[in-house]
Amino acid sequence: MKYLKVFFQLLMLLVIVGIPIKTAELVVEKREDVIEGSLEIKEPQEELIIEQLKKEETVIKNNTPVTTGSGWWAYPENIKETTRNGNDLLVLVNKEYKLPSTYAPTDLVKASNSGIRRGDSYYLRNILIPDLTAMITASKAQGIDLSIVSAYRSYATQQTTYNYWLTKNNGDVAYVDTFSARAGHSQHQLGTAMDFSTSEINDVLGDSFGNTKASKWLVENSYKYGFVLSFPFGYETTTGYKYESWHYRYIGKSNALEMKNSGNILELYLRSKN
Ligand SMILES: [Zn+2]
Questions:
Q1: What is the 154 CA–ligand 1 centroid distance (Å)?
Q2: Which residues of 67-88 are buried (b: 16+ CB within 10 A; e: fewer)?
Q3: Based on the domain organization, do 54 and 155 belong to the same domain?
């Protein structure tokens, strides 16, 4: 009889402990992004995202001084959904226009398919791989050594990223909004935005990239391959973000050429198309 009682107590314990374990499994399952077809991309573990963010942290702290007091970083009251589909190379994604939480590109491949260094850990849309390959080949021929340090980020990852920075900065929303996009508002959800670095600065992400040969080369040549700088220097009040010398977006060769000829920065060029 005594043994039977102990047996039932153990059984109850198993049931109680078992429930949270099962719930945790469900949460993990939900965090995986399953991409159409055979390609399955697992959402990086939260700890891995946090690890990467910690690496970026020193860089962000030393960031260029920014314009203060005008509220240029603020989100408008009325947030709208993007007017073009997320797959459209010219879709305008900014603080006013947000991608649906359900949007994910369906043709993601490893960035390393283009021959760029460190590309095994990052995903980009297959549509831009030929042009990225050509750009990497051309840059190498000029002695430029580019690497990639961030690319596709899902809605869920972007949420984690933004919340990390918020917690880190004691909930200072205004400050975090100057450099980190809220979920749905990030170009990284498109799979056509990427952050570059180079061996010149040991492949770190951040401001020091702006003073490298690699950055100079990109500023002069990237449009020929369809890649353009998203947040140029001195345009915080237009883009809503600090200058990011490392962040580029692919819009295709003919669009990039048209944008360059128009004299507009990406934000204004896309506004004219959306
Ligand atoms: Zn970026």
A1: 13
A2: eeeeebbebeeeeeebeeebee
A3: yes
